[in-house]
Structures are given as C-alpha cells and as structure tokens.
Design a protein that fits this description.
This protein is α/β, with parallel strands linked by helices and 281 residues long. The chain has helices at residues 30-43, 63-76, 125-137, 149-160, 184-197, 212-222, 245-255, 266-272, and strands at 9-12, 47-50, 52-53, 59-60, 81-84, 106-110, 114-115, 120-121, 141-146, 169-174, 202-207, 225-228, 235-237, 240-241. The protein has one domain (5-272): TIM Barrel. The protein has an eight-stranded parallel beta barrel, surrounded by eight helices. The protein has a two-stranded antiparallel ribbon with strand order 3-4. Bound molecules: zinc ion.
C-alpha cells in the first residue's frame, strides 16, 4: 500500500483579534512573530499564515511590516511556505492586498461573504476578482477560505474562468460564531463536493477555539492537512493556556501516528501544493 499523504501543518501565528489579553504568548511585533514562527517550524509546521499588527495590537496591512516578517521567516525557516492573510480586519477594500507585490508563496482568498461574531465579513465580487488577479500577477497561490459551500462553488467557477490557476487549495473553516458550526456530516460533504468539482484539489481543515483539535483529528483521518495556531485557539485544554504556537503544532504532530500519518517536510509540502521546490533548483 502506498504511504498516506504526509500532513502539511499550517501554523496561524497571530490573527487579527486582540488576543494578547487572552494569552500573552500571542506574538505581536514582527520580531516576536519571527521567533514564534521559527519555534513552530522546528516543531513541524511547514506553512505559516500571517497577519501583522501595530504596537497597540490593532491589525494593519502595512506592507513594510509584511516585508520584514517575510524576510525574517525566509532567513530563519528555510523553505517554509509563507502565506499572507488578505482577511478583512487589516484594512478596507484593496488595502487588504497592498502587500501582495512582496510575492509571498501564498495568500488567503475568501470567495464570498458571511457573518462573523460581531460583524459581516464582507468580500464583494469585485474585490474577490481584484485580489485573485493580483495573486495571479505576482505568482502567488491562493488558499481559498471556505466558510460555507457557496464559496467552494465560487472558487471552482473562478478556475473555469481562468481567474485562479489550478490545482485549487481550499481551507474549510468551521466554528466561527455566526458562520458554519463544527459539523461532521457537513465537513464530509464539503470534502466529497470538492473531490467531485475539483479532483486535483488539496484541502486543509481549520477549527476555531476548543474545536481546533476536532478539525485536526478529522482532517488527519480523512486525508487532509491541518491548521493550528494561536490565531484560532489560545488553549491546550479547558484549564491550560497554550504556551506557544509551537505547543499547538506539537499537539498535531503527536496526533499524526494515531491516523497513520506523519508531518510533511518542506520539500513534500511544496510538492503537494505544486509550489516551486525547495531548495530552489
Ligand atoms: Zn488569518
């Protein structure tokens, strides 16, 4: 029997919500972020999902901060896949893609709108097209953030229209309050639908809060990749704060053997996502 696909572990180090008060381990400054990413990389993460913050913790899309973060990660975590967030808290409209000329390996792209805990997560069709066009222009692979099924259909349509280059990489996000809850049957249906519409696609599962580990387990079991990190969850369990992003990465690494999986190396992660090889030829 062929070996099961190694698991790409994404670490979402910071996020855009003020979390320092919930857990002081959330890295805020660029140097804290580089250090936290390096620790997570050593623990087994091969992809880092990044937001940047101002000193007062408010989110920003300042390209200068993204540039310093990218440089630090490339230096200290050779081959690690760097993904910038184009999520909605860091700026208005096109500001959210202002750092794409820095050419990270990947960037997040949410292909629709939905409700979040205290607001509408707004992604109008014109902005989605513009972000996708910028990613294409700079050779950046999008990670499609799927908060509900319509976003998956939209991404497949964009491939057909030539707005996104295949193969798709999709992340199914569950457990954001007021968006799609954590539901096993829906999760399986997402995967089945992805396989039907885009047989060459790859996918990651992301769960928010206490359900981070639920989605880690389901993704390992069903052949997908895993996202963890302090952006989505700041606790190891009900009683224990996660001491670092690396601790959350280790939790996934430790789960892998239960499902006959192992963490991917950077070379494997790049091959699975059809990104340029590391080290460069
Ligand atoms: Zn994010």
């Amino acid at each position: 029997m062929p070996e099961p696909t190694p698991c790409i572990i994404t670490v979402a180090i910071t996020g855009s919500l003020p979390r320092k008060k919930d857990n002081p381990a959330v890295p805020i400054t660029v140097s804290e972020q580089i250090e936290s990413t390096h620790e997570a990389f050593e623990a087994g993460a091969t992809l880092v999902h990044c937001h940047v913050r101002n000193e007062d913790e408010t989110p920003t899309s300042d390209p200068e901060k993204f540039a310093r973060l990218l440089e630090g990660i490339r230096k200290h975590c050779p081959g690690m896949i760097v993904q910038f967030s184009t999520g909605g808290r860091s700026g208005k409209g096109r500001e959210r893609g202002g750092m794409l000329p820095l050419r990270p390996d990947m960037a997040s792209l949410t292909t629709g709108s939905c409700n979040f805990p205290n607001r509408v997560y707004e992604n109008d069709p014109e902005l989605i097209d513009w972000l996708a066009a910028e990613m294409k222009k700079y050779g950046i692979k999008p990670e499609i953030e799927v908060f509900d099924l319509s976003m998956l259909f939209k991404a497949v349509e964009m491939v057909k229209e030539g707005k996104i280059d295949p193969p798709l990489h999709v992340q199914f996000v569950m457990g954001v309050k007021n968006a799609m809850p954590v539901d096993r049957e829906v999760f399986e249906f997402y995967i089945k639908t992805l396989h039907r519409l885009a047989p060459d696609a790859t996918w990651t599962g992301a769960g928010i809060g206490k359900d981070q580990i639920t989605l880690n387990r389901w993704s390992l079991e069903l052949g997908g990749h895993c996202r963890t990190g302090l952006e989505d969850n700041v606790r190891l369990d009900k009683y224990t704060l996660a001491p670092s992003n690396a601790a959350l990465v280790r939790r996934v690494v430790d789960l892998c053997p239960e499902y006959g999986r192992r963490p991917a190396t950077v070379a494997e992660a790049r091959a699975i996502l059809k990104l340029p090889p590391w080290p460069p030829a």
